[in-house]
């Protein structure tokens, strides 16, 4: 080839391009520009698209390297001649022109503050913000001063992009006067001064608050961003960051920096940094969080730049240009510095530039210029057009012209072909022409000739070219022509030596376009109903003759099945469409020439309707005796007919079909129906709701509530039996339920397999007792296992094995099995299990499970009726049962999980009767949550030897929801005080005991405890009361020093145990003192009798009807009141095997329920006692008993010891000739003996069923009453009849001897009263009397009778109470009590030794 004539490409490009610049008024600015080329290019500048005349400009001048210098930037409110977009233009004569990127020159405005710093104070160690906000263009000119000295910035003291100053971890040295300064040329502008005061650490915790939260940012790649996260609070919080809800370690990249105080700085931003950033602040007491989005923009970048191209005239070429950026850049093209205007011959297609039918003037430099909001860039290439006789050195990869020999170098020199003959247009259409010709005269065979067709519009000098496909071919079809246009064609033949002569030009006119209608305007569609849509349109504007009819095309969106209908008018209604479905419509008008141009598609959705199918997979789960949980799935997708807004549940008792209850719930797919009757069968049905109404309901399905609330805290026990009966291909399994019927059984799991029972598992209902395992192999050894299960898990299995019969065996199944409930077994060919199961933790109670299904196509689109079952469980406790849920998508949101708990998940797929095995498991631990229950078992005890110190013990909350990091104990003397007035004692870590010192003696305190974890504080426990001990040991308080091992008393104080000899001495001493007290009381009582005492009958009647026997009380003669000395005996005390007997104190019961009728045959029930009432213990001295109570009963000390729970019994003996022994329950005096009871093994007490009798004594509305019962087979020598006995039960451990409280002022005692009701009048609180009994361990004696008369009438009671003090000589009392006190002091000395 003629190498000398092939011109080479000339390197011509920019070395430096101008960049965006920020300036201030009066400054000097240089916009750099430098271009490379040989010869040197001429540089010019454009501003805002117009060339600058720099010759006559005294402020702006061109520097030798091509840069632009602007002297003294001019900028005012109304005159901004220098601000704008600048572009550098380089030109080389005879070669071409290139332009640089555009650069923006911004001039900062006048210095002005939009906000200024204000004086403030801050706690040491906290953070502080000083505002100084200015316009964005002024930020680079802002600096700060402290006490008028420049402030040094670091990662503790830094500014935000707005100019605001943040100081973290404030120290004392940060105090002072602050101001910010703008230095943007001229004199600096100062803000107001603000004083910052630094305060010492606060003593009390301060709530966490945000001083500055992160705000959304938009940044360009390569820039830096600061997300402020500035908080105040005490203790000083810890701050961590999350990105897109995932933890990310700031240390993992040098580009991330955690500034002091917790703000996040990201430098050299990349597009991967985009996302949501959340700052989480925690200080041990509470957690707060805030989040903001980072949007990253990127200036345009070239993925593919245009390449230099060689071409011949008439060829079609394309310059390729591929760019990226965010937002997506726009692309325009320049040729020799001027923008290319798209036309028929210059087309921009997907950023590429096509140049069609090249002419010589198309030579030059082409530039692709890409631009978006954050930048612009340019890249260029050169086009050289060679002469036709110069071969193209290399075929451009971007040529649009098909390759032919005209691009190849001629092999040799020789004769060229003559012109092709007889060029004709054999086919002329509106848009294409087919040309044919004959071979040139010089080469009649023409087998090796190729042909090139040149064509152009008449009057246009730009020729285009089309080549034949293969040598010898003598026809070509020219496409993409314009209708009714004249084209000029010529054909050139080419052989191995080169192209020959051209044929004579041939003029051909394309056919005119047939006059078809244009598109119909104003096409509109609207839905009339759930199944019909009306479409309307107008007559086409270019009808080109009469419109004969229209064709309306429509199809369901997302399908490709288009239907059509002929329409005569301008509207049509299509019926029979699917409900709540999108359809697209278009219209084509027809005239006599045929169909016209189609309209654009319009899309409209049919209206919604009630669902046309019922919900699916309705299932019931009996929760307990009063509630049933219902689960279901939505109706099939095509039948919902709208947005499901909720579900209607209807239920009724199976026995009463008319009474139906309705419940409407939300869109959740489950509902707990509560308040049902126990042991009752209920039927349920569910229907779906849309805004249009209710769809069809499911069939009724039934379940029966449990007869009683069975235990479901543990798994069921083993089934009581399992029987198997093998047949040829099946085995009949039968069983009986577990013997323990008190544990919930929700069903049975049958496992079976050859040699191992784990191959297949079937689950059946809890009512089922038979099951036939089908599809087995004949003559095979199967192992079968049966387990009962409930919501806690599966119980212990029973195993059985069986060999199926051989094929020849045809014996039938037993008749009783034929009607057994049948459950289908899985198809023997299972599906593939789901893969790639992943658990994404979303919150403290929600995890999203996702998976893939390899049996689906690659796009994972589900088109059949398969569904997936997700199961999950936690391993704590170990026997937790799996929970399951069904879904028809490839993900599932598992909710209602426990916080801070590790769960395992697996998935299976079911299609028809085929199911897969369970997938591989995925694990996920839910996030922590604040504790949702208070600490448990809070107890308070005194510290031994330190009465002002108490020890608080507790157990962790049952719902800790995370690792417990501490507790807070609140205590107060006022239980009703506001919680912020209580005293706080923090406990760090997970300790479960704490001492509190320096409390006030003899004061009731109330205690509450609160637990905390990393998420915050939980709820408080109920208040627990504790009264601190008195300072001095008094007569009545000396007994608590006795050992109280196992005591239930909330006031008990542990002491060192005494040896058994000391214990014996103490108990004997107590017994002796008790006898002495009783004797003294009795002696005083026998001295006085009252005449009217004998006349009174009981004033109170029992509510249960005992007034019928009112007359009987006349027969009851009060016997002489004296002490049966011969019956008063002190049994020897057996040595207790337990060296620490328990002492119990007994408060007076509040009402009749607390005193229980019992006889000797009920001894076994005596252990079932409960502390039914604890009143205020009375601490009065013992002398009150003798001095204040006018009691003269005939008494018998009950020394019955019925181990391990003795009973104090008062026996009223009525007239022995009365055969009925009916008593007014109010007629028994409230008489109690102060005695000591030694009991073993009484850690807790329960109450027996109480009597129903109620009494009304005095004017008290809730009186006490002693209920009487018969004592069967009493062993008394002188009594042949059963004696009624009133039993008083000890209800909690004894703290000290105690006596009734002194009556309140206003109530006095009557000397004639045989007994005084221990009731405070006028509705005051009932005081309790501590009583006890001394009994002999290990021996049984019936209680001794105590004879008591009836209580007087109410009216007389008041009269008799008037002169109580005058009936006893104080001297006698004083003498006796002095003697008693001497004895008690001796006893004190013994116990304290």
Automatic annotation (TrEMBL):
This is Neogenin. InterPro entries: FN3_dom, FN3_sf, Ig-like_dom, Ig-like_dom_sf, Ig-like_fold, Ig_I-set, Ig_sub, Ig_sub2. It is found in: Cell membrane. Belongs to the immunoglobulin superfamily. DCC family. The keyword RNA-binding does not apply. It is a single-pass type I membrane protein. One of its GO terms (cellular component) is plasma membrane.
């Amino acid at each position: 080839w003629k190498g000398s004539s092939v011109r080479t490409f000339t390197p011509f490009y920019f070395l430096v391009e101008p960049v965006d610049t920020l300036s201030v008024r009066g400054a000097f600015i240089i916009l750099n520009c430098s271009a490379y080329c040989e010869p040197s290019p001429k540089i010019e500048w454009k501003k805002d698209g117009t060339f600058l005349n720099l010759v006559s400009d005294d402020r702006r001048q061109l520097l030798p390297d091509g840069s632009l210098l602007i002297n003294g930037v001019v900028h005012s409110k109304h005159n901004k001649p220098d601000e704008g977009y600048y572009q550098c233009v380089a030109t080389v004569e005879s070669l071409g022109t290139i332009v640089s990127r555009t650069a923006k020159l911004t001039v900062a405005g006048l210095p002005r503050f939009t906000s200024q710093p204000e004086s403030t104070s801050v706690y040491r160690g906290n953070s502080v913000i000083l505002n100084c906000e200015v316009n964005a263009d002024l930020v680079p000119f802002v600096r700060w001063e402290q006490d008028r000295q420049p402030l040094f910035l670091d990662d503790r003291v830094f500014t935000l992009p707005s100019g605001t100053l943040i100081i973290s971890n404030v120290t004392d040295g940060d105090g002072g006067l602050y101001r910010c300064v703008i230095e943007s040329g001229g004199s600096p502008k100062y803000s107001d001064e603000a004083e910052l005061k630094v305060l010492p650490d606060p003593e009390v915790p301060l709530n966490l608050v945000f001083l500055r939260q992160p705000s959304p940012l938009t940044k360009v790649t390569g820039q830096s961003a600061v997300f402020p996260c500035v908080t105040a609070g005490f203790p000083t919080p810890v701050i961590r960051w999350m990105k897109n809800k995932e933890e990310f370690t700031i240390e993992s990249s040098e580009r991330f920096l955690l500034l002091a105080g917790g703000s996040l700085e990201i430098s050299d931003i990349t597009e991967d940094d985009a996302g949501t950033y959340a700052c989480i602040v925690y200080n041990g007491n509470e957690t707060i969080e805030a989040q903001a989005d980072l949007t990253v923009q990127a200036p345009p970048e070239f993925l593919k730049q245009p390449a230099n191209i060689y071409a011949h005239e008439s060829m079609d070429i394309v310059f390729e240009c591929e760019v990226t950026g965010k937002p997506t850049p726009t692309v325009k093209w320049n040729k020799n510095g001027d923008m290319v205007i798209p036309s028929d011959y210059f087309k921009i297609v997907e950023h590429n530039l096509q140049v069609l039918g090249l002419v010589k003037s198309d030579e030059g430099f082409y530039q692709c210029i890409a631009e978006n909001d954050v930048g612009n860039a340019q890249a260029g290439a050169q086009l050289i057009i060679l002469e036709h006789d110069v071969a193209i050195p290399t075929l451009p990869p971007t040529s649009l012209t098909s390759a032919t020999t005209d691009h190849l170098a001629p092999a040799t020199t020789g004769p060229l072909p003559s012109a092709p003959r007889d060029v004709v247009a054999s086919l002329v259409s509106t848009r294409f022409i087919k040309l044919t010709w004959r071979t040139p005269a010089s080469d009649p065979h023409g087998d090796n000739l190729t042909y090139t067709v040149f064509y152009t519009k008449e009057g246009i000098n730009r020729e285009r070219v089309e080549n034949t496909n293969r040598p010898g071919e003598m026809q070509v079809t020219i496409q993409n022509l314009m209708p009714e246009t004249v084209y000029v064609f010529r054909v050139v033949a080419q052989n191995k030596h080169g192209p020959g002569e051209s044929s004579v030009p041939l003029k051909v006119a394309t056919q005119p376009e047939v006059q078809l209608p244009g598109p119909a305007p104003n096409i509109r569609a609207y839905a009339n109903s759930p199944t019909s849509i009306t479409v309307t349109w107008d007559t086409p504007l270019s009808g080109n003759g009469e419109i004969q009819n229209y064709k309306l095309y429509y199809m369901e969106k997302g399908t490709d099945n288009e239907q059509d209908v002929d329409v005569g008018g301008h509207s049509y209604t299509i019926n029979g469409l699917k409900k709540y479905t999108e359809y697209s419509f278009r219209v084509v008008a027809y005239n006599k020439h045929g169909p016209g141009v189609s309209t654009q598609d319009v899309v409209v959705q049919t209206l919604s309707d009630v669902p046309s199918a019922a919900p699916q997979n309705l299932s019931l789960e009996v929760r307990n005796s009063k509630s049933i949980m219902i689960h279901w799935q939505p109706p099939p997708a095509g039948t919902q007919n709208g947005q499901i807004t909720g579900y209607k549940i209807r239920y009724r008792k199976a026995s009463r079909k008319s009474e139906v209850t309705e419940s409407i719930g939300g869109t959740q797919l489950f509902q707990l129906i509560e308040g049902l009757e126990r042991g009752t069968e209920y039927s349920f049905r569910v229907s779906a709701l849309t805004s249009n109404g209710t769809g069809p309901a499911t069939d009724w399905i039934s379940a029966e509530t449990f007869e009683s609330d069975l235990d479901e805290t543990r798994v069921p026990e083993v089934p009581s039996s399992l029987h198997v009966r093998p047949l040829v291909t099946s085995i009949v399994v039968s069983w009986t339920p577990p013997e323990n019927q008190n544990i919930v059984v929700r069903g049975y799991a049958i496992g079976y397999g050859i040699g191992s029972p784990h191959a297949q598992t079937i689950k059946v209902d809890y009512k089922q007792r038979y099951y036939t395992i089908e599809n087995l192999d004949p003559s095979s050894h199967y192992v079968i296992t049966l387990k009962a299960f409930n919501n806690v898990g599966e119980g212990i299995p029973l195993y059985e094995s069986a060999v199926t019969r051989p094929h020849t065996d045809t014996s039938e199944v037993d008749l009783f099995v034929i009607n057994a409930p049948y459950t289908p077994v899985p198809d023997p060919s299972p599906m593939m299990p789901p893969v790639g199961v992943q658990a994404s933790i979303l919150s403290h109670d929600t995890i999203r499970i996702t998976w893939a299904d390899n049996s689906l196509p690659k796009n994972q689109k589900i088109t059949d009726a398969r569904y997936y079952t997700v199961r999950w469980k936690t391993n704590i406790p170990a026997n937790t049962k799996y929970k399951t849920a069904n879904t028809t998508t490839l993900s599932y949101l598992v909710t209602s999980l426990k916080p801070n708990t590790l769960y395992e998940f697996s998935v299976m797929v079911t299609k028809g009767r085929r199911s897969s095995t369970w997938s591989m498991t995925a694990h996920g631990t839910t996030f922590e949550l604040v504790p949702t229950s208070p600490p448990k078992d809070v107890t308070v005890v005194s510290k031994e030897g330190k009465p002002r110190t108490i020890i608080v013990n507790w157990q962790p909350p049952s719902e800790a929801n995370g690792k417990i990091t501490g507790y807070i104990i609140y205590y107060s003397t006022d239980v009703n005080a506001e919680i912020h007035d209580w005293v706080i004692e923090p406990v760090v870590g997970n300790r479960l005991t704490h001492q509190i010192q320096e409390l006030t003696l003899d004061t009731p305190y109330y205690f509450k405890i609160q637990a905390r974890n990393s998420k915050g504080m939980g709820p408080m426990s109920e208040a627990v009361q504790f009264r601190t001990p008195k300072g001095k040991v008094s007569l009545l308080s000396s007994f608590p020093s006795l050992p109280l091992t196992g005591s239930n008393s909330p006031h008990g104080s542990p002491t060192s145990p005494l040896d058994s000899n000391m214990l014996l001495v103490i108990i004997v001493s107590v017994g002796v003192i008790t006898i002495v007290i009783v004797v003294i009381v009795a002696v005083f009582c026998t001295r006085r009798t009252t005449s009217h005492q004998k006349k009174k009958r009981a004033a109170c009647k029992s509510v249960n009807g005992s007034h019928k026997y009112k007359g009987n009380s006349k027969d009851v003669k009060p016997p002489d009141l004296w002490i049966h000395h011969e019956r008063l005996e002190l049994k020897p005390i057996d040595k207790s095997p337990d060296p620490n007997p328990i002492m119990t104190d007994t408060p007076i019961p509040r009402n009749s329920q607390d005193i229980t009728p019992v006889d000797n045959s009920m001894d076994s029930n005596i252990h079932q006692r409960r502390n039914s009432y604890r009143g205020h213990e009375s601490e009065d001295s013992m002398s009150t008993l003798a001095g204040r109570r006018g009691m003269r009963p005939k008494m018998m000390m009950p020394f019955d010891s019925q181990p391990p729970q003795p009973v104090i019994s008062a026996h009223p003996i009525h007239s022995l000739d009365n055969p009925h022994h009916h008593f007014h329950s109010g007629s028994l005096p409230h008489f109690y003996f102060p005695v000591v009871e030694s009991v073993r093994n009484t850690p807790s007490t329960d109450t027996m069923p109480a009597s129903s009798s109620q009494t009304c004594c005095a004017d008290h509305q809730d009186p006490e009453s002693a209920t009487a019962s018969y004592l069967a087979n009493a062993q008394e020598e002188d009594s042949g009849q059963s004696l009624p006995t009133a039993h008083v039960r000890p209800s909690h451990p004894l703290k000290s001897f105690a006596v009734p409280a002194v009556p309140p002022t206003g109530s006095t005692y009557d000397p004639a009263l045989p007994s005084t009701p221990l009731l405070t009048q006028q509705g005051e609180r009932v005081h309790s009397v501590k009583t006890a009994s001394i009994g002999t361990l290990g021996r049984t004696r019936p209680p001794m009778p105590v004879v008591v008369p009836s209580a007087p009438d109410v009216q007389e009671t008041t009269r008799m109470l008037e002169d109580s003090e005058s009936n006893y000589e104080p001297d006698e009392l004083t003498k006796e009590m002095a003697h008693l006190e001497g004895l008690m002091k001796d006893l004190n000395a013994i116990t304290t030794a």
